[in-house]
């Protein structure tokens, strides 16, 4: 018996036991249950956590099995992404969503557009998670609704082959609900604040929470200057807070991504107290830039003095009270951050870098794997990188080392359009095309994401439409560049009434009201013009 038929039989037994439910159709009940597989956000979090854990295990066995996501700032954008993935690739396997704190700040704050500095409302983060999953669940309901309509037609024609095929499609239907890697920034406060927000995110459906080691009230975008890190003990307390939130809510295999910004962070706000030589606080303090203290004359009022390797040293403090790390210690601090996080409850790492360079990433990951062999990364394929220039310069450098003639190229000018058709540019594009595959194999990257691609695609497509529509093209700009392309490329969204739930509503009206239902999808609905 098919799962769908089993659901009908179960609903029949239930309804038949209630004499006043004679107007309830058991098959309609089964359909609505099938269309609403996930009843709560916690159901989603538990399911997607199991998906992500399975994917992590498969990656450990085969680095070619890496995963990917795109950042989405609205539920509709996430929904369209998953519909497109299923249409073009047949499955959502190993495709996730990313929730970017940057985009929440820039596009979802009631304060208006904000920089990525944890100034937006913390409640906007779980609200967006809930919104994304609401749209993904609606995609399930819509697609299954179409299958039910086809099933009714096949049954009406007595086409048992089609009936069996459609029942199989319904039983094997792959949900659009996929894992979301959700950005909690630096936790929006102390460890209790982190725990409370993590709970809301998990209750909304998050199976994976990414947290960074910056000071919460001094948080900066990972690709901006002025970043300030916290001591390891402070960061580990927040990792513990997130784990407790997962366990309290019964998401036992929830995933924590520990992000380190130490590569680009040269400052700390706090000097931790070492209890013994070589402990985490002592290791953190060893990276501080200090000056020797020979006598009281070397110390000003309010200065701090610490003892390092038997000597008194004065940490260099800026006018704003922050302390400096030694220049050139970034990679060493990253490695220590990552090892410490993995040894204390984190599942995945995020190393924020200043450029997409596989050799640089692999150099750090290999050092981490010397201590934690299965260490793996979530990596930000950031739009903040100038990918074209970076990779053209990487190819330039590689060719120079190989002794290849590069006299026709000027390294600082490689972004110029004049080089677009050159051999070097074509080779750089091949490197970009293969970056994710190569980095997954060589640098331990389990998950590749782009933080804010849909921010840029929205801007680009709007610019192109506005240019033509308000210019000489007029309405043709929309028809040619948008609607005609939707039709030619078979975008489901061309039937926007259906996408917004019109047909779902008609189905429900028929369930509830029978022949009296006033439905929107009749012959006069202009959506029928699209076939």
Automatic annotation (TrEMBL):
Catalytic residues identified in the record: 221
Domain of life: Bacteria
Pfam families: ICL
Catalytic activity, as annotated: D-threo-isocitrate = glyoxylate + succinate
The organism of origin for this protein: Saliniradius amylolyticus
InterPro entries: ICL/PEPM (IPR039556), Isocitrate_lyase (IPR006254), Pyrv/PenolPyrv_kinase-like_dom (IPR015813), Pyrv_kinase-like_dom_sf (IPR040442)
Keywords, in A-Z order: Lyase, Magnesium, Metal-binding
Protein name: Isocitrate lyase
Co-factor remark: Can also use Mn(2+) ion.
């Amino acid at each position: 018996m098919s799962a769908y038929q089993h659901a009908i039989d179960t609903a029949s037994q239930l309804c038949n036991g209630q004499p006043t439910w004679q107007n309830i159709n058991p098959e309609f009940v089964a359909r609505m249950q099938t269309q609403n597989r996930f009843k709560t956000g916690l159901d989603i979090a538990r399911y997607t956590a199991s998906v992500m854990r399975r994917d992590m295990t498969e990656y450990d066995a085969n680095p070619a099995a890496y995963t990917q996501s795109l950042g989405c700032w609205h539920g509709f954008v996430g929904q369209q992404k998953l519909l497109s993935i299923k249409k073009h690739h047949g499955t959502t396997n190993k495709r996730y969503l990313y929730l970017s704190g940057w985009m929440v700040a820039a596009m979802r704050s009631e304060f208006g557009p904000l920089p990525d500095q944890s100034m937006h409302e913390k409640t906007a983060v779980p609200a967006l998670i809930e919104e994304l999953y609401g749209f993904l669940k609606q995609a399930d309901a819509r697609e299954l609704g179409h299958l039910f309509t086809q099933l009714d037609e096949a049954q009406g024609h007595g086409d048992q082959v089609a009936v069996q095929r459609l029942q199989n499609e319904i039983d094997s239907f792959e949900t659009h609900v996929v894992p979301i890697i959700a950005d909690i920034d630096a936790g929006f406060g102390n460890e209790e604040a982190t725990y409370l927000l993590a709970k809301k995110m998990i209750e909304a459906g998050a199976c994976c929470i990414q947290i960074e080691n910056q000071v919460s009230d001094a948080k900066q975008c990972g690709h901006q200057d002025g970043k300030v890190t916290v001591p390891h003990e402070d960061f580990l307390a927040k990792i513990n807070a997130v784990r407790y939130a997962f366990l309290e809510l019964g998401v036992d295999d929830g995933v924590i991504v520990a992000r380190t910004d130490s590569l680009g962070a040269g400052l700390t706000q706090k000097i931790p107290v070492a209890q013994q030589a070589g402990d985490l606080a002592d290791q953190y303090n060893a990276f501080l830039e200090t000056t020797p203290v020979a006598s009281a004359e070397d110390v000003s009022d309010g200065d701090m003095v610490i003892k390092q390797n038997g000597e008194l040293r004065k940490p260099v403090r800026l006018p704003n009270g922050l302390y400096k790390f030694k220049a050139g210690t970034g990679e060493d601090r990253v490695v220590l951050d990552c090892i410490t996080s993995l040894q204390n409850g984190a599942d995945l790492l995020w190393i924020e870098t200043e450029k997409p360079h596989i050799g640089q990433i692999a150099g750090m990951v290999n050092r981490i794997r010397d201590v934690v062999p299965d260490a793996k990364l979530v990596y930000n394929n950031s739009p903040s990188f100038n990918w074209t220039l970076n990779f053209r310069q990487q190819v330039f450098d590689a060719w120079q080392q190989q002794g290849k003639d590069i006299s026709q190229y000027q390294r600082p000018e490689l972004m110029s359009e004049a080089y677009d058709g050159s051999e070097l540019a074509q080779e750089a594009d091949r490197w970009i095309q293969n970056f994710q595959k190569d980095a997954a194999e060589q640098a331990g990257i389990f998950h590749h994401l782009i933080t804010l691609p849909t921010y840029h695609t929205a801007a680009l497509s709007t610019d192109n439409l506005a240019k033509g529509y308000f210019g000489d093209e007029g309405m043709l700009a929309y028809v040619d560049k948008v609607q005609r392309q939707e039709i030619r490329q078979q975008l489901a969204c061309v039937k926007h009434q259906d996408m917004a739930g019109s047909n779902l509503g008609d189905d429900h009206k028929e369930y509830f009201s029978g022949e009296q239902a006033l439905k929107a999808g009749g012959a006069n609905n202009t959506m029928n013009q699209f076939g």
